[in-house]
Amino acid sequence: MFVALRDLKNARGRFVLMSVVIILITFLVTFLSSLTAGLARESTSAVTDLPSDHLAFSMPSADDSPEFTASRVTADQWTGWEDVDGVESADPLGVATTRAESASTTAGVTALGVEPGSGLVPGGDVASGEVVLTPGAAADLDAEVGDAVTMGGSDLTVAAVVDADESFSHSPVVWTTLDDWQAIGARGATGESDGPVASVVALSSSGTDAFATADADLGTTTVTTSDARSAVPSFAGENLSLTTMQLFLLVISALVVGAFFTVWTISRSADIAVLKALGASTPYLLKDALGQAALVLTGGVAVGTGLTVPGAAVLPAAVPVSVSWSTTLVPAVALVVLGLVGAAVSVARITRVDPHAALAAH
Amino acid sequence: MDLHLEHVTLVYPDGESTLTAVDDVSLTVPAGTTTALLGPSGAGKSSLLAVAAGLTAPSWGQVRIGESVVFEPTTSVADATRVRRDRIGMVFQAPQLLGSLTALEQLELHAHLRGEKPASLRDRSLELLDAVGVVDHAAKRPAQLSGGQRQRIAIARALVGEPDVLLVDEPTSALDHERGVQVVELITGLARSTGAATVLVSHDSSTLASVDATVQMVDARLDSV
Fold first, then answer.
1. Spatial contact of A36 and A327, defined as CB atoms under 8 Å apart
2. Rounded distance between C-alpha atoms, residue B197 and residue B176, angstroms
3. Alpha carbon distance A36, A320 (integer Å)
4. Most confident listed range (A151-155, A249-253, B66-70, B129-133)
5. Which of A235, B160, B158 is nearest to B171 (CA)?
6. Strand B60-65 and strand B68-71: pairing?
7. Is A270 in CB contact (< 8 Å) with chain B?
8. Which of A351, A209, A354, A192 is nearest to A283 (CA)?
9. Rounded Cα–Cα distance for residues A320 and A310 (Å)
10. Which of A136, A183, B92, B146 yields a CA-CA distance of 20 to 30 A from A240?
11. Are A7 and A14 in contact (CB under 8 A)?
12. What are B154-170's pLDDT values in tens digits?
């Protein structure tokens, strides 16, 4: 990069301007990616943090896509899943968004109902007449262990505040027994084997391939815990919108980089003709130009990515930004790769520069 | 080594017919000598120079340096580029220096094109800049130099790779008579000292007193040798 490095130094104004554009786009993409991850966690962490690997839904119609708010599993379906080969545990899980009242305030929460001893409550268990709070619920309700919390007309005592910051559809999670949940969620058990008992059945399996057969027999739809995120009402819409914005930004970034290097390559066509006339091979010139683009891109992307961490730190806690390697490094690499593709398309015109032009130039 | 142009013919497509820019030209330039190529505009001087430099493949005929054929109709672009880099020095009508490089770097670039460290050519580059009288400006970029200084640096750049052949296109077109004479004397002197077979295209015969031979091109053919 003998010439490229000196061009960077000599035309620093143009390259600084381009670098600033790349920095800003990178910051926007990585910040948006972190925001997407944060919002996704706020929507689905109660599901993705379950110790189960699959969830069985029972939708009103077999053609319906799984959805927590519409799914109702019966006792027959629950016990049916317990008997499926390869399923180690099948636990009913009730999901209901409701209003909770403490002595001092009111907050919207998602109540998860489980059978006592199911192991679904992070770091503990819950007994009848008790409620286990996540830190977010405890903060919103200004409640601590021993306080009373009223949900759906039921008075429950706070048994524990667990160290697991889980939420569902942007509301903090509280854990109750399935019986209490049925009262809270107004989905009370009918006492019959085909009456609804919970929203879904949480399954822990050991590599069974019997899900399709069991689904057909029991009238359920089983998905992995990860795929079950799409069954959270707020998740799919948010995630699709934000991911689309990120993809558009990545494409815009590649186009901006490509446009810059197109103009830059055209402006130095005379120099390229001279270099070819002096004996510079086309691969040498392409390597020089792409190396220059890579340097500008990686520098700009590195600074832009680095700004995301302090940028996220100064935001109010209400903005759910989740900065991690996957929300910064992955989009950063994508920006560099797509930017290089844009630059490669632009500098490819080097191959068409005729060294004969060096003789004709005055 | 001597430069041999043998039955060089260059034909361009021109609409539905063709245009013969160089017509069966044969010319030998001995090593260390300078041959001036004179002629009116459109006579084919620059086209012949382009063939001699491998910038354009001849339609017929061949170019030899010493015993080796370097350019013929079937020579690939990559091979022609390699020959230009390793065996030919070129001085263009305008100095054509690269704007971001200092005078010294214009010369050191040649080492980088060869895959060597630029610093490996530092001593020779400084010697050549001294020989053309601009060594005091080695750290300056083209924008900081006069037209004459840029032309001298271009001459030094053409010779830094110790080429067998030096091809010079209208080096005096932008200079007054006195400076034109000085530049031609500088080129012929450097050709003798480096042993490069030199072809110098010019439209001004009054500056060519120091060259070893003069040939005239008219209507794509050599008029006399």
1. yes
2. 26
3. 9
4. B66-70
5. B158
6. antiparallel
7. yes
8. A351
9. 15
10. A136
11. no
12. 999 998 988 999 999 98
Residue A349's identity, in one-letter code, is R
Q: How crowded is residue B203: how many other Cβ atoms within 10 Å of its Cβ?
A: 15
Does A355 contact B at CB distance below 8 Å?
Answer: yes
Query: How far is B98 from chain A, CA to nearest CA, in Å?
Result: 6
- The answer to whether A115 touches A181, Cβ cutoff 8 Å, is no
Chain A residues with CB under 8 Å of B85 CB are: 278-281
pLDDT at B183: 85
CA distance to partner chain B, nearest, from residue A24 (Å): 28
CB contact under 8 A, A359 and B141: no
Q: Which run of H or E residues covers position A267? A: helix A233-267
- Convert chain B into a string of H (helix), E (strand) and C (coil): CCEEEEEEEEEEEECCEEEEEEEEEEEEECCCCEEEEECCCCCCHHHHHHHHCCCCCCCEEEEEECCEEEECCCCCHHHHHHHHHHHEEEECCCCCCCCCCCHHHHHHHHHHHCCCCHHHHHHHHHHHHHHCCCHHHCCCCHHHCCHHHHHHHHHHHHHCCCCCEEEEECCCCCCCHHHHHHHHHHHHHHHHHHCCEEEEECCCHHHCCCCCEEEEEECCEEEEC
Give the Cα separation of A220 and A212 in Å (integer): 9
Q: Residue A289 has which token pair? A: 């130009």
pLDDT at A191: 53
Interchain CB contact of A12 with B (< 8 Å)? no
Give the domain range for residue B73.
Answer: 3-224
Domain containing B132 — which CATH number? 3.40.50.300
pLDDT tops 70 at residue A25 = yes
Give me the number of domains chain B comprises: 1
Q: Which of A3, A281, A361 lies at the smallest CB-CB distance from B96?
A: A361
Residues in A closer than 8 angstroms to B57, CB to CB, are none
Residue A29 near residue A246, CB atoms below 8 Å? yes
Neighbours of A362 (CB within 10 A): 9
pLDDT per position as a tens digit, A242-263: 889 888 988 888 888 888 888 8
ipTM for the predicted complex comes to 0.90
Average pLDDT over residues A223-250: 88
Residue B94 Cα, gap to closest chain A Cα (Å)? 5
- Say which range, A298-307, B135-144, B180-189, has the weakest mean pLDDT: B180-189
